[in-house]
Design goal:
This protein is an alpha+beta fold and 90 residues long. It has one domain. It contains 2 helices and 3 strands. α1 packs across α2. The longest helix has 21 residues. The protein is globular, with a radius of gyration of 12 Å.
Length: 90
């Protein structure tokens, strides 16, 4: 695994936004049985905001308590070879 750099921003944006769309598809398919059913998320505007220097990506329009969503996106980033944390905020 490697720490992402500014040069990776577009790739990270694509991975994060794709993970957000897949999470939305999951909850849309079966809301009551989705792993995201208890999380406060504005699904209409959810997406990548920026790569921070920690390394951490910021995803906007989800509660800071949306742990399942953060884990889901972090797993996608890990699978793509990036060791980066995800933070969610309104």
């Amino acid at each position: 695994m490697r720490v992402p750099t500014a040069a990776d921003t577009d790739k990270l944006r694509r991975i994060v936004n794709e993970a957000c769309k897949d999470a939305f598809a999951d909850i849309s398919k079966d809301c009551k049985n989705s792993r995201f059913d208890k999380e406060a998320v504005n699904w209409a505007d959810l997406g990548f905001v920026e790569l921070e220097t920690k390394p951490r990506v910021l995803v906007e329009e989800a509660s800071p308590d949306a742990t399942e969503l953060r884990k889901f996106i972090e797993a996608r980033l890990w699978d793509a070879g990036f060791d980066v944390a995800v933070e969610t905020e309104w």
